[in-house]
Amino acid sequence: MRNWQVERRKRTRHLIELGGLVVKAGIVNLTGDDRATIYGALLWMVDKLQSEDGKHAHGVWIKLGKMAFEAERKEEMPTVAQEQQDRA
Question: How far apart are CA 49 and CA 43, in angstroms?
Fold first, then answer.
């Protein structure tokens, strides 16, 4: 297999995994698979991360993501309320 084919497959797998996260988070169902809404939300995330509050948002999102992955392993889903409760 040529190097460009290996790289293309890696990129394809990466993109599929990212799309899987969009589905796993429930965004597809909540937006009715509206690509403009999903893209707009992602652009909002970019703006948020580039703002002066970006570090805080990034930290919160990392914590929520890690909680969700851990909860998935335990078959339960975390909520924002649980994250806020952990901070208190």
Answer: 10
Sign of CA dihedral 48, 50, 58, 40: positive
Question: Which residues have CB under 8 Å from 49's CB, separation 6+?
Answer: 57, 58
- Separation between Cα atoms, residue 27 and residue 6, nearest integer Å: 30
- Alpha carbon distance 64, 67 (integer Å): 5
- Residue whose token pair is 């909860």: 71
R_g (Cα) of the chain, nearest Å: 16
The pLDDT tens digits along the chain (88 residues) read 899 999 999 999 999 999 999 999 999 999 999 999 999 999 999 999 999 999 999 999 999 999 999 988 887 655 666 666 666 6
CA–CA distance, 40 with 9 (Å, rounded to integer): 28
